[in-house]
Amino acid sequence: MAKPYLLFKMPSGIWYARIQLPDGTHSNNRSTGCRDRNAAERVVMEWIVNNKLPNRINSADDKQVGLDKITVLNSLRTLDLEREDIQNIIKILKERNLIHSAVMMASPESKPIDEYIKEFWAFETSPYVKEKKLKGGSIHRDYCEAMLMRATKYWLPSVAGKPVGCITHDDVTALFEDEEVLKLAPKTINSVVSSVTIPLKWAFFHNLTEINCFDGIMKCSQKSKKREILTLEQAAAVFAADWDNETAKLANAVAFYTGMRAGEIAALRFEDIGVDRLYVRHSWRNSEGLKECKNGEEREVLIPPQIRDMLIAEAKANPWGQKMKGFIFWGLTPDHPTDPKNWLKFLRRVLENIGYSDPDKITFHAWRHLWCSRMSDEIADKRVLMTSSGHKTEAMLDHYAAHMEQEKALEKLRSTEERLLLPILGFDKEESKIQDIEAKIISENEKKKDDNNTNKEDCE
User: Fold this and answer.
1) Which side of the chain, N or C, has fewer Cβ within a 10 Å radius?
2) Looking at the domain assignment, is residue 101 inside a domain?
3) Stretch (H or E) spanning 145
4) How far apart are the first and last CA of the chain?
């Protein structure tokens, strides 16, 4: 009967053996550490009886490997494994809690993280953006571009090339150890974290990774820097002053009286003017054009007849012949309103003229903060304010606001705005003469056209 091993002597005088494994193959050469053949055979038989081989004879850790295990390892090195076989091996190792996960070559999980992040935040082609819109969510191009920029600048350099399925919790929390990240404001740091965790969370729930590396990430406690706003007395001085641009003054007046955002005012069209209100249906973004409002919902805001008439006059002066679809604050082309940055430029110019200490600290959005602050002083019921402001904050407020009768809420706002804000603009409750307003605005717009023609001639 053949012996279950091969024994041979090396030039050093030491006997080596190759043990026959359960599958009929043989192990690698193993030193017995013996110069005597009989002693060597006793050592080898002891290995076979115990079904274990030492990693190395006289090794300090005296670690031994079972013959069955050697057979398995040898098989893994040589067998032609199908994809399903590999998946089964991974599954077995996970079930035994020997591994958390494994990434197969040429699988979705193997996509380099930098490629995945860039595809995720690509507004036009992102599956995340498509899914969000399909489910009624609101997401904008500039938001996606900002998130991609932050992930690219602050995180991807440290993990570039690493497969999506191999990104760990430690890879994400390493952000908080990066010196460049720590220099940022808390709100910006949180945005950087979101630019990473949002894609990873989406990947986890869409089977692109088996590692939950986004839960438990503690964001920075953020105290937003208090925005500087004008007092009502300062606002009165602003609107009592002479403006170099009456259209900019009107846009600022709308923001002051209604609390509307700059993009919402820029998006207003002739058809959005009602008898005593504006219908806020869209927002304008230079990167995307005319889009839905920030929270995805339309709303109504009250305006006094004086502002209504001024808006009508401005809309009628639109030279592009679009009638009710034309922008109120029209621009140099039919499809673009005027740039809201101009409104801020002329506002700061007026602030400087009236002696305001630091005009650069005032933003156009400060009107919205002023409106919310002063209305909150007068109206305790936040549901009323949310009817006009378009804010969507706590879920319970949203729930109760849905049951609020809109007209009753607007009536409360009307009386407060007429009493508190209308005098600031130099108006009373009597309606203005629209013909006088039209004449003033048309005259100003004619001057604009003449200036544009002069500039073109100078360029030619």
Assistant:
1) N
2) no
3) helix 141-154
4) 107
